[in-house]
Amino acid sequence: MSTTLKDGDQCNVIAGTHKGKSGKVSDINLSKTGHITITVTQDNGVRFKTLGKNVEVN
Fold it and tell me: Which of 20, 58, 18, 45 has the alpha carbon at shortest distance from 37?
């Protein structure tokens, strides 16, 4: 991932279960296994968790 994720960034999910969805990045964590996990909040208020590698920043 070439772009650093920050809280409030607008992003598109490009892989995984939530592919095709978009929203704002929040709650960035580093998991025990070394993967970056984030929460994405959609415009309608629905939130979901995904891996940082599955998103691209707009």
Answer: 18
d(CA 22, CA 31): 22
Calpha distance 1→5 (Å, rounded): 9
Strands 36-41 and 47-51: antiparallel
Reported as a single tens digit per residue, the pLDDT across 15-46 is 999 999 999 999 999 999 999 999 999 999 99
Percent of the chain surpassing pLDDT 70 = 95
- Enter the pTM of the model: 0.89
- Rg, C-alpha atoms of the chain: 10
Determine the 3-state secondary structure of 21 from DSSP.
coil
